[in-house]
Amino acid sequence: MVTIRKNQVILFGLKDCKYAVHNVVNDLNISEDSIDAFDICLILVEAITNAFKHGNKCDSNKPIQINYMQNDNDIIFEIIDTGTGFDYNACARKVSEHNLMIEGGRGIHLIQSLADCLSNEENKFIIERKLQNQ
Question: Phi and psi dihedrals of 132, rounded to 5?
């Protein structure tokens, strides 16, 4: 189930994740063919997946709230789950030739690589991204 409002999406589980993410990209008026759209889709899918798996403990009855704000080329995303929060720096695993083929563990690394700034406040993960092609 997904609820879509201006500058906010609320998901229950991952079933409608891609639909919700594409709705955010469209709402921000980002061309779906652009590198910005690709990067933002990847950032959001990874952050939502982490919120579902780790924050909500894979419970589809618990909400994941995505708030987003745009000021010119700057976008701020807030991913809010029902968990207790985490230290994203402690979670990022360094990708090396020894663990390259291990499934999982690279979501935070990908988000860090594509975002301009990350922070967290309890169960709110804040991602800042400057648009490149606007």
Answer: -95, -35
Rounded Cα gap, residues 59 and 13, in angstroms:
7
pTM above 0.85, yes or no: yes
| Segment 19-24 mean pLDDT | 95
The string over 56-91, giving b where at least 16 C-beta atoms fall within 10 Å of a residue's C-beta and e elsewhere, is beeeeebbbbbbbeeeeeebebbbbbebeebebeee
Whose structure tokens read 């997904």? 2
Domain range spanning residue 119? Answer: 2-130
- Phi and psi of 8, rounded to 5°? -155, 140
Q: Tell me the per-residue pLDDT of 40-57, one tens digit each, with 9 for 90 and over.
A: 999 999 999 999 998 999
DSSP secondary-structure letter at 51? I
Q: Kindly indicate the confidence band of residue 10, based on its pLDDT and cuts at 50, 70 and 90.
A: very high
CA distance 123 to 71: 24
Number of structural domains found in the chain = 1
